[in-house]
Amino acid sequence: MAKEIERKFLVADVSVLDGRRGFSIVQGYLAKESMSVRVRTFGHQAFLTLKGPTCGISRDEFEYPIPFEDALALLESYCVTKIIRKKRYLIPHDDLVFEVDVFEGKLAGLIIAEVELACETQPVNLPPWIGREVTGDSRFGNFSLARVDAPPLFQPARSPS
Questions:
Q1: Deepest of 2, 31, 118, 134, by most Cβ within 10 A of its Cβ?
Q2: What's the alpha-carbon Rg for the chain, to the nearest Å?
Q3: How far apart are CA 78 and CA 30, in angstroms?
Q4: Per-residue pLDDT for 156 more than 60?
Q5: How far is residue 110's CA from residue 104's CA, in Å, rounded to a whole number?
């Protein structure tokens, strides 16, 4: 069983993307019950991904390649209102690679950096262009983002009163 262990951050200095080439990603969400089910395309590749609930900064993840035409059909028929479009940039820093997603369309203006870790306690030397951490803020999860009409406000979530 695969484990996804990641931290998420807002990007404070977008100049880190200057001169870099990214690749386009389209992803939609088919379901979210005990697991989220996502279909994603980038380039001419497509994947079906199942993700379990988050515990700390970890969760189970299962990802399978699927025919590109199947992914397009799933996106068009079943994900119409739950689609994210973004351009991804891979930025190495120390021994890690930060995946920087520049969201498009209804989420334009939102830029999030994610870094995958080998374990939850792995130390991370953050690059100077990283902003506020949003790892535990569900508003910045891709499933939540796929369901909103605009990016979340860039302020901490309020605690229930």
A1: 134
A2: 16
A3: 6
A4: no
A5: 8
